[in-house]
UniProtKB/TrEMBL annotation:
Transmembrane segments: none annotated. This is N-acetylglucosamine kinase. It comes from Caecibacteroides pullorum. PANTHER family: N-ACETYL-D-GLUCOSAMINE KINASE (PTHR43190). Gene3D superfamilies: 1.10.720.160, 3.30.420.40.
Amino acid sequence: MKLIAESGSTRTEWVLVEDNNLIQRAFTEGLNPFFQTRREISRSVRLGLPELFFKKKLEQVYFYGAGCSSHEKKNILGASLVAQFKTPIQVESDLLAAARGLFKCEAGIACILGTGSNSCFYDGKIIAKNVKAGGYILGDEGSGAVMGKHFLSDVLKGLAPKDITNDFYDKFRINANEVMESVYNRPFPNRFLATVSYFLADYLNEDYVYNLITSNLRSFFTRNVCQYDYQNYPVRFVGSLAHYYAELLRETAKEFGIDLKTIEETSINGLIEYHAMNREEV
């Protein structure tokens, strides 16, 4: 039996798999070694997962996560999981999860739009090229966090429409000072910012909101996708925001001559298929 996990900054999806069959699925909070210590990760896993996940005899745990791009961060995550499951652990990035989940063993351009954003050219085995994501301060174009950041900046500066601003303050039960507190002094500001981005979906008929979202998506294509050979390889997307704004994402892709056929909410089903093929090389 295998345990496969895919984690963004907001949520982690865990699946127990035996002979390509899904046995049980569970969700916990997002795990990210950039924002959490080894002890905090261990505690989150132990308290968040059902006891069944610790009682099953596992041959391997495959964990794919945001923030797991360097050996140092992989080791933090791996040590936390070994302590909980007492079994071999393979920790890889959420970007490799996207590539394997979207393309299995085929070549293509894999893109993530969720709380954060990322992209790569995957040659069917490895990530052959990656335009660095930059995080929600220096990059993450098109992500929920960056959309939320741009909207809140407009709200604080009085540039967002007043009715949308008032609705935001009312629905979130928050004021300008608390916005600043949530972004600068509370844990996981990227999660807060991403939550704000989904609020905008109720106002897509407003030119301000439509333009804010599409300009962010356009920025993702311009600054990321266009740096790959996107005219000769398929482009596919995964992530909560990509799924949520799929129609606008497809419209924006067409501006770049891209026929976007595949948009998945998560990579987990593709990862189950990938690991059933016994292709475990990195």
